[in-house]
Amino acid sequence: MMLDRNIAAEVLARAVKTGGDFAEIFMEDNTSSNMTLKSDRIESLGTAREHGAGIRVFEGTRAIYVYTNDTSREGLMDCAAQAAAAVRSGKGCTPVGFSHWSTARANEIRIQPGDAEAALKAEKLRAANAAARGISPEIVQVTCGYKDVTQDVLICNTEGVFVTDRRVRSRLMVSAVASDGKENQTGSCNPGAGMGFELFDERVDPEACGRLAAEKAVTMLHADSCPAGVYPVVIDGGFGGVIFHEACGHSLEATSVAYGISEFSGKLGQQIAASCVTAVDDGTIPGEWGSTHVDDEGMPTSCLTLIENGILVNYMIDKLGGRRMNMAPTGSGRRESYQWAPTSRMRNTYIAAGPDDEAEMIATMGTGLYAKSMGGGSVNPATGEFNFSVEEGYWVEDGKILRPVRGASLIGKGGEVLMRIDRVGKKMTMAQGMCGSASGSVPVNVGQPMIRVSSMTVGGK
Amino acid sequence: MIRMDEFIDKLLKAAAEAGIEPAEVYCEEKSSFSAEAMDGSIDSYEVSETCGLSLRGMVGGKMGYASTEAFDEDAIRMLIRGVKESAALVETEEQDEIYAGDPAYPELAVPENDLDNVTAEEKLQLALEMEKAAMTADSRIAKSRGSYVTTGKGVVRLVNSYGLNLKTEKPVGGYAVAGIWLVGKDGESASAGGESEARRKFRELDPVRIGKKAAENTAAMLNASPVESGTYRVVIRRDAMRSLLNVFSSIFSAENAQKKLSLLEGREGETIASSCVTLMDDPLLPDGFASAAFDGEGSACRTKAVIENGVLKTLLHSRKTARKAGTVSTGNAKRSVSSPVKVAPTNFFFQPGEKDLDGLLADLGEGLLITEVGGLHAGANPISGDFSLIAKGFRVTGGKQGLPVEQITIAGNFYQMLKDIRAIGSDLEFKSSNIGSPSVDVGNIHVAGK
């Protein structure tokens, strides 16, 4: 994908002609393939190509965004003119000459997804399916999905940025259904990475993934309902990190902080979490699901400590949020595609490892819930109210794990829950998710070691 | 814009030459406008025009799929290669099929609309007025989180090598939506709330009405507190019930039932819900967001009861699932550019009953009114029917709405809830969705609180 630099300069100049003080072109060509196996057979596979561009113009802290599939010179000039027409009385700007750089790194992706034959991808799905079915005759359905994405982007702006990047991601998704004919329960395992087909050589064992999903489903089929009430909760590592993502992460994005909406607005330097909590948002970890070389505003990504020993030290800031907050952007501008204007988003976000012993955490918790595996969640940053679901939970009495429980959810308010974390385990692990917010759905990692919260509202029956 | 007719002709010719026979193109063109005001000025402004196209076709008796948003010679080559690759690996016994079409299609009422002669300036004004009305309605409204207006139109085409050539607006007549999100403050208590309206005619959107209602909704939730954990008698208000029905609508798909992802397989004719429950799928609703004369496979759409007086009358079918079940398509094949044919409801709603919300609460006596549920993408599982969701609402005492409630969860199972329903209200509402519901008295629900 190429955009002639002269055309780019012409389009940007047109975009700021009526007084805009910043303009940007985000151009994208995205090729993806996906495959689904269901009822023991490859059910569908498809390839898709998304292609388009978005032009953004700033007038102070006001943003105008126009996007199209028509990336011809005429198409882009038309978008620029439409954006310019929405500017009211800006102070204008003089575009700076481009300094081009490419972030593409040789040999970073060992096997480009397009170079792996579809038949090989199908084998991975069959392996996961067979392993899941092998767990129990109670497994009545297994859905296995494979998806790869190769996103080429070009970002240029009136500040002289002209950068290209390629993002490659691959993911396996297994969902198993256990049934006794009257009731169904499900289990899933969805590992992915910022990798090509080498994902399956280096990181993901489809059989292990299939077994894990099926074991969860069978365990939950034979589980009782989770008791409802307020209890201590131990949350395991990996996808357990969704608690930080919902309870705190979203409220540290400029998307809500810059507008004074977040409960953590104006709290830099203050304690917002128990002193055992240190939390990081890192977009630079090679090969991780939430990493990119540059963000979707053309700025290199960063490793950002958000909370250090309980003290709030950084927000995640995009360009527009930075203007509102009078602070520098942190390489956190992200978007689902050219169909979305970017805003501040998380990348790979985790609670850092601590000193505590995992067995002791459960042994001394009394009666409560051990949440071994999490589903997704959501938050309202204005009030800090969050919720997330427990995919696999166990009831603990007197510090002993008694029995599996189903249908649990955890709710609370971000600020309160962070202060109630009283144990942080030794081994941090991460897991992959898709995070939906103001700029669409973007890949993120969540992570943590095993932690304990001294009391939380547990939803159940 | 690119001339799609020409591109589609060229693509179908190239597909035939490449041995893809029959072949079909599904194409969506969309345009939208949106603007948001915050703190008294326009904060963001967005305009778009996009087009996506999917090619599917039979190669060696198997169906392949590919899609694109680029419309050049390269795209034609990529689509043909994609369809062939995909057809070569598909293994399912039951194949999708390409359909020559029905002899006749129902006439749709075309709602009157004014979207073509509303200026951008009028839309910006509406967002600003709505924010002003909300911010001045109640002194406890502390902050606007955005007052927005969105309008849009779309055109969908289905063209295949059997000569079928269908085209429709989607939604018919376009749409205009306006809404606002607010933060309320009262001492230490904060609340978040809002209101939105969807109309076909932009000029029927009343900024003052929406703004005031948003302020009222937000202020009502101030100083909310949890109730004791336990079992409560519950009415779920129409907006929260619509969210629940939306998540669990997939259990009525024959495709999911045939694949053991719904517990309703083979249960047509059985009583699966309380006798007061009638659940409709009506693609011919005059103002519906999913109203259509034909579905994603070119079958004629028709109105049917899915549940009638508690009895499951039919599941929703595409041609493939109908063939497997030995019946005919219900006209519920759903297309999108980037995925294969699926089964989905059109305008889907509980048939309204006699009593309004006040009437339902009067009959309830003591319990809870749930007005909002959250975290549905994770806390509600359509395969098991289980849900465990964060919720808000009000205490109900003496048959009347009382003090606000937050930080609780409601837990249950949708299949069981259908059987436990005691009454369905008269206040059916869709807003900007194809799923609609009145308020519903759902019997007893487990609540986690303090």
**SS strand fraction of chain A:** 35-45%
Q: What is the number of beta strands of chain B?
A: 20
Provide the structure class of chain B: alpha+beta
Number of helices of chain A: 10
Major sheet of chain B: 7 strands, antiparallel
Structural category of chain A: alpha+beta
> Using CB atoms under 8 Å apart, which protein chain pair has the greatest interface?
A-B, 77 and 77 residues
Number of DSSP strands of chain A?
Answer: 24
Mean pLDDT of chain A: 94
State the shape of chain A: globular
Oligomeric state of the chains in view: heterodimer
Q: What percent of residues of chain B adopt helix (DSSP H or I)?
A: 10-25%
Write a brief caption for the model.
The complex is a heterodimer of chains A (461) and B (450). Helix content of chain A is 20%, strand content 41%.
Question: What features would you highlight for this structure?
Answer:
heterodimer, A: alpha+beta, PmbA/TldD fold, 24 strands, B: 450 residues, alpha+beta, 7-stranded antiparallel β-sheet, globular
Description:
The complex is a heterodimer of chains A (461) and B (450). Chain A has 461 residues and is α+β, with helices and mostly antiparallel strands. Chain A folds into two domains: 5-221, 2-Layer Sandwich (PmbA/TldD fold); 224-459, no CATH class. Chain A contains ten helices and 24 strands. In chain A, strands 1, 2, 3, 4, 5, 6, 7 and 8 form an eight-stranded mixed sheet that branches. In chain A, strands 13-12-11-16-23-22 form a six-stranded mixed sheet, with helices on one face. In chain A, strands 10-17-18-20-24 form a five-stranded mixed barrel. In chain A, helix 1 runs parallel beside helix 2 and helix 3 packs parallel to helix 5. The radius of gyration of chain A is 24 Å and the shape is globular. The termini of chain A are far apart. By secondary structure, chain B is an alpha+beta fold. Among the domains of chain B are: 115-150 and 176-220, 2-Layer Sandwich (PmbA/TldD fold), CATH 3.30.2290.10; 230-246 and 352-448, no CATH class; 253-347, no CATH class. Chain B has ten helices and 20 strands. Chain B has helices at residues 4-17, 73-89, 120-135, 207-220, 238-248, 254-258, 319-325, 357-364, 376-379, 414-420, and strands at residues 23-38, 41-59, 62-68, 141-160, 165-169, 175-186, 189-199, 230-236, 279-281, 304-308, 311-312, 333-336, 339-343, 348-350, 367-374, 386-397, 400-413, 423-424, 435-436, 440-448. In chain B, strands 1, 2, 3, 4, 5, 6 and 7 form a seven-stranded antiparallel sheet that branches. In chain B, strand 12 (333-336) and strand 13 form a beta hairpin. In chain B, helix 3 (120-135) runs parallel beside helix 4 (207-220). The mean pLDDT of chain B is 94. The chains are: A alpha+beta (461), B alpha+beta (450). The interface between A and B is large, with 77 and 77 residues.
